[in-house]
């Protein structure tokens, strides 16, 4: 059985005329994500010439293409162009992964990226095409999960995240967390697998139990009245870059960005301390979280933040940390069906869902204790 797309997404290139500024060039061309770099290069050169007229007369030898990274949902390429006057230019081309429209709202991403770029976040959007986008090149290294534990870097991430949350994106300000989780749930709970091993693992999932957990967590978090901000929603180490010479930190890749609850962005970021191995013993301690919160709440005078404000944000973040586990657990099931990447997504579902169940009692107790205080009664 096939799966309907979660969002009724347009073809990106066709919709670019409406989703991005008319000043941003667009192309209907696509590039096959699965090609090797030598086979991909002629397609990339054709695309560059279609988007940027000043390069029409350059032959292929003026272009070089190399892989920067290959994530779970996209492939990032560095393209260098040597112009006739001896001037060299670098840019990045991001190819969307196959079937990512099932979990990523590209229309929403394209709208937000222009405003975030104008506010100093990420790379500048230079062009869009059938299955990707062209952006300016960021000369920086990607962080590792252990980098995020560094107190100095944690403070800078917190400061930048506060600024990120202050960016205004036009359109609806409705938080998307539970809309997305429920969309993911509807798709994830109706999948069918041909692969015998996937099928047997999938059939052990108690979807009524999962739905009950979504309902109870949603009810709890609604009582916390967390502020709604434009959130990154995927602030893992791979989406943080650092130019150490300039001391400049960059947030990149806004694929999952949306208006959302502040606590979700914080709790989701803390979950990423566990790294790609999902070692949740690395989740930040209360003291580490308070260090982050102080620089988030008051970047200029972090030591002036009150204990009351720290405890409130701790309860909020801990509750939404649970929501992060449910979100990515369900996301993984859809990927298990749709993604061509060789990764055991169903086992990843259990990693995230089991961690949710492990942390649930403590986090629910913390939130209820906080809510029982007289000022919240």
Automatic annotation (TrEMBL):
List its EC numbers: 2.7.1.82
Is Repeat there in the keyword field? Answer: no
Output the Gene Ontology terms for molecular function.
ethanolamine kinase activity
Residues annotated as transmembrane: none
Q: Which InterPro entries match?
A: Kinase-like_dom_sf
Q: Which CDD domains match?
A: ETNK_euk
| GO CC list | cytoplasm
- Where does this protein act, in terms of pathway? Phospholipid metabolism; phosphatidylethanolamine biosynthesis; phosphatidylethanolamine from ethanolamine: step 1/3
- EC main group: transferase
One GO BP annotation is: phosphatidylethanolamine biosynthetic process
Gene3D superfamilies cross-referenced by the UniProt entry: 3.90.1200.10, Phosphorylase Kinase, domain 1
What are the UniProt keywords, alphabetically?
Kinase, Transferase
Query: Its family?
Result: Belongs to the choline/ethanolamine kinase family.
Q: Could you identify this protein by its name?
A: ethanolamine kinase
Q: Please state the gene responsible for encoding this protein.
A: LOC107810824
